[in-house]
Write a structure and sequence with these properties.
The chain contains one helix and no strands. With 40 residues, the chain is mainly alpha-helical. The longest helix has 21 residues. The protein is elongated.
């Protein structure tokens, strides 16, 4: 699981959680667009 921190309630501020979700989705979309299956 690449973005394990999203499965727990570690963030104190909702804005921080939202930012982490945006980063995870951006990473997922970039990997799908490039066809890269390796973890970088």
């Amino acid at each position: 699981m690449l973005h394990r921190r999203l499965t727990r309630g570690y963030e104190a501020l909702p804005e921080r959680s939202e930012a982490m979700i945006h980063l995870a989705v951006t990473d997922l979309m970039a990997r799908r667009l490039t066809g890269d299956n390796t973890i970088s």
